TrEMBL record:
Ranges of residues in domain SIS: 43-183, 215-356
Name of the protein in question: Glutamine--fructose-6-phosphate aminotransferase [isomerizing]
Keyword Nucleus: no
Keywords: Aminotransferase, Cytoplasm, Glutamine amidotransferase, Repeat, Transferase
Subcellular location: Cytoplasm
Main subcellular localisation: cytoplasm
Upper taxonomic lineage: Bacteria, Pseudomonadati, Balneolota, Balneolia, Balneolales
GO cellular-component term (any): cytosol
Chain's role: Catalyzes the first step in hexosamine metabolism, converting fructose-6P into glucosamine-6P using glutamine as a nitrogen source.
Location of the active site: K361 (for fru-6p isomerization activity)
Reaction equation(s) it catalyzes: D-fructose 6-phosphate + L-glutamine = D-glucosamine 6-phosphate + L-glutamate
EC id: 2.6.1.16
Subunit details: Homodimer.
Length: 366
């Protein structure tokens, strides 16, 4: 059932080219530069006229929601708030009928996410969902939604659920941008074409898994890790740190790179690996200064960056080059080496990768 892989997590990491292709299939039309999301047709008018999008989720799904915030603001010029479902449900949120609530959940059974959804619905918001499990409670409780079609995810650590959620959010943001006329048509065409080619680029990254495995050997006994990213890759930094924490039990923190100066820089010394997620975008120069600051304090840089980003590649001690892509699609690629890194470190440490201690696949109680 693990298809020849030693763990479900590794199988699911390697399934991503197929999972992404299944997620995109029938939804992207490269010839006429369009996106079709059948599940949203009936509510499209209301979504188009929304004043605000509220995204609520937990854990990894909350990280994909953060990527969604950048996507919807950039492509659809829609104000977005991303909420921890567990906090949202116990606040006194100000919600109106012009708001749209979008909940994201792989399992569709997370108790806090379900409660956040119900809170927003009771106050009149349109309720949308992005779920993987077909017919799950959250999927049934929403007004409309989009399935990720990632296939069953068994490993407790979420992998293909994350990348397919980000792919759905990207399609939704492009579609909404086209409806709201906030996206330039040549740019939309380019994004659709590029998104369609993402499964192949993931395949290329997976072809180099051996080099991530070798790198993992060197860092197996590091006591702490720091992950830094900016813009679209700030949420990926959080996700990389969560992955490492939950399966290898190494303390890790993810930060927006500029926040390093406001505290975490005090932790940096030669024992501290710093994973820098530096997709080649308009923040590249800033990332380069952050790398220099880490190096000046003896920190060890592992860079996840575009293969043409020679400045970063030359500065870093270890590199995981990834194929170049559009900035806003980069999380679909940068997440992959981070999944592999945490997997191989956890295996080296003898951890139970698929069933980490104290964790359940879906958290159906508070
Ligand atoms: O099923 P959901 O997407 O609602 O689950 C949310 C979180 O419990 C989940 O993403 C958790 O953080 C994962 N173990 C992360 O790998």
């Amino acid at each position: 059932e693990k298809g020849g892989y030693p763990h479900f997590m590794l199988k699911e990491i390697f399934e991503q080219p197929r999972a992404l292709a299944d997620c995109l299939r029938g939804r992207l039309n490269v010839e006429n530069s369009s996106v079709q999301l059948g599940g949203l047709t009936d509510i499209m008018d209301r979504l188009e006229g929304a004043e605000r999008l509220i995204i609520a989720a937990c854990g990894t799904s909350w990280h994909s929601g953060l990527v969604g915030e950048y996507l919807f603001e950039h492509l659809a010029k829609l104000p977005v708030e991303v909420e921890y479902a567990s906090e949202f449900r116990y606040r006194e949120p100000l919600i109106s009928e012009d708001d749209v609530m979008l909940v994201i959940s792989q399992s569709g059974e997370t108790a806090d996410t379900l409660a956040a959804l119900r809170t927003a619905r009771e106050r009149g918001a349109l309720a949308l969902g992005i779920c993987n499990v077909v017919g799950s409670t959250i999927a049934r409780d929403t007004d409309a939604g989009v399935y990720t079609h990632a296939g069953p995810e068994i490993g407790v650590a979420s992998t293909k659920a994350f990348t397919t959620q980000v792919a759905v959010l990207t399609m939704m943001a492009i579609l909404l941008g086209q409806k709201r006329n906030t996206i330039d048509s040549a740019y939309a065409a380019r994004l659709i074409r590029e998104l369609n080619g993402i499964p192949e680029k993931i395949e290329k990254i997976l072809d180099h898994s051996e080099s991530v495995k070798n790198m993992a050997e060197l860092f197996t006994y590091a006591p702490n890790f720091l992950y830094l990213g900016r813009t679209y890759n700030f949420p990926v930094a959080l996700e990389g740190a969560l992955k490492l924490k939950e399966i290898s039990y190494i303390h890790a923190e993810g930060y927006p790179a500029a926040e390093m100066k406001h505290g975490p820089i005090a932790l940096i010394d030669k024992m501290m690996p710093v994973v820098v997620i530096a997709a080649t975008d308009h923040t590249n120069d800033k990332m380069i200064s952050n790398i220099e600051e880490v190096k000046a304090r003896g920190g060890r840089i592992i860079a996840i960056t575009g293969e043409e980003n020679s400045e970063v590649i030359d500065l870093a001690e270890f590199n995981c080059p990834i194929p170049e892509t559009e900035d806003c699609l980069s999380p679909l690629l940068t997440a992959i080496p981070l999944q592999l890194l945490s997997y191989y470190i956890a295996v080296n440490r003898g951890c139970d990768v698929d069933q980490p201690r104290n964790l359940a696949k879906s958290v159906t109680v508070e």
